Amino acid sequence: MSILSIENQKKTHSMTDKKILRFIYVISAVVFLLVAILFALPKANHIPEWIKILPKLNACLNGTCFVLLLFSLYFIKQGKIHIHKVINLTAFSLSVLFLLSYVLFHSFGVETRYGDLNHDGILDAAEMLQAGNIRYVYYVILITHILLAAVVLPLVLISFFRGLSNQIPQHKKIVRWSYPIWLYVTFSGVIVYLMISPYYSF
């Protein structure tokens, strides 16, 4: 194979990479905007009974992903690459299912305030006092969860792209960031649910 042919292959490969990365960024931006729009929607007059199980389902999906990610780390350290890939693809599929469920639930405009014991949508002084400083812990976990969830999507997609296209050095480089962030997002999602679920008003 000539040097010119090799150079052409490299250029083609580089252009393909750029197109895929551009697609990943567009998808990530669209998802971020969609989720942001959800929080501006008014609360629906009627919320179907089956919608009410979605927060628990989301917590289960997050918890399952967290466990799968721990197994993923274990198997890659054992050199079992195929199992590592299967587990990661399963975790990603569950994360996609979570996203769909999350969007569906919040499309009804459901909003819950931590500490709102009487479910009137207003946190009065007595409720704040009863909630105590743990309310601030909840908001720290919630805010970091939301911010990192927005960051992790493109990182995970790029990690998958690098890994599945056998770009191992680049894959390892980005996984140093995507893996711990994804792990935190799945774990904190469960914690957020456990903390806010007593205050659901439906």
Short description:
By secondary structure, this protein is mostly helical. The protein is 76% helix and 0% strand.
Report, as a whole number of angstroms, the end-to-end distance: 68 Å
Helix count, DSSP H or I runs of 4 or more residues = 6
What's the number of extended β-strand segments?
0
Element order: H for helix, E for strand: HHHHHH
Using only CA atoms, what is the Rg?
Answer: 21 Å
Helical proportion? over 70%
What structural class results from the helix and strand content? mainly alpha
The percent range for strand residues is under 5%
**Rough outline:** elongated
Return residue spans where pLDDT drops below 50 for at least 5 consecutive residues: 3-9
| Overall pLDDT | 88
> Biggest sheet, open or closed, and with what strands and sense?
none
